[in-house]
Amino acid sequence: PKDTIERFRRLVLQEKVDCVQGLISTGVSLGVAPTAEEEQALLIMWDGTTQDGVKEAMPKSNYVFRSTDNECEAVMASLLSIKYFKGKIKRIAGINPDYSYGRNNWEAFQQILRRAGVEAEVVAEQWPKVGTMDLTSHVAALKAAKPDFIFSSMLFADLPVFMKQGSAAGLFEGVNIALPAAGWQINQLKKEFMPENVVFGHNTLYFALPTASPLQKAFVDDYMGRYKEAPHWEADRAYFALAAYKAGVEAANKATGRWPKLDEIIAAIPEQKVQSLGGPGQFRKDKIAEQTFYQGLSTNKNTYDFPTLSTVDSFTADQLQKPPGVDFWDWIKTSKLPV
Fold this sequence. Notes:
The structure is a single chain. The chain has helices at about 1-15, 25-40, 70-85, 100-115, 135-145, 160-170, 215-225, 235-255, 260-270, 330-335; strands spanning about 20, 45, 50, 55, 65, 90-95, 120-125, 150, 175-180, 200, 275, 280-285, 290, 290-300, 310, 315. It contains ten helices and 16 strands. It is an alpha/beta fold. The protein has two domains: about 1-70 and about 230-290, Rossmann fold (3-Layer(aba) Sandwich); about 70-205 and about 295-335, Response regulator (Rossmann fold), CATH 3.40.50.2300. The strands form four sheets. Strands 6, 7, 8, 9, 10, 14, 15 and 16 form an eight-stranded mixed sheet that branches. Strand 3 (about 50) and strand 4 (about 55) form a beta hairpin.
């Protein structure tokens, strides 16, 4: 993240911006966040966290507002896998990116299965390096293991490659699948190689939500008209960050009767309920986001060339992420899960 840290410092020290927003990679944001604290500069992350694995590395930030926890989508996909396929999950296989996100998501899936009383045998674990475009050996290993359920938290350009190569090899015949982060590749996951009834994660924005707000409908119509593609959740994360900042400035202005100081804005942002593209959200007092997540079973019966959802489930982040100061693995074992 060296280049990003240098750009951040330039924005803050040379251009003297009031607030920096962005960052979608925890690997980068872990480096930038301490710099924001050091420079006393307000940073609102879209999709970046300050998690070291599943542990919060900055529990008491002064200037840094973080995304929802990295594991939210995996927790939700695990719960929906149980909801829709309990009794059909006997032989599980995982193909997940070979870094902490992929490994923690796979472990969370297994722990949630066990907590729900699902006794499943792990028949294969595949760990492709991020960016691997030839996944044929991984596909062959999965097929040889004969799983009845595959869990994959892949989310970059390798996910469509995996699904296309897996389909060509007949990997998905008679197999149920969970893809917690599939929505990031929605436009590349073509119906020609996507099976139906996949647990399909859209994170905090499902573009075709039947109960979408007028705000979301207007945005999706404009976006698809302009770019001929469906928007995914980073559009919502960008909107939410700006909406939360705006709400904080307005609340502090109302309280002081003048343009507020930085510390007044920062103090006002937490617990300001805002309407984002994907639904309502807010930042907790510890400056970690709470937003609404969407997943469901996929269908190819639509007018697009990619899947939509035949069932839509929504959970709020307070149902999917650990509370402040709580160990993630302890929370998984003891929390009241929504399914």
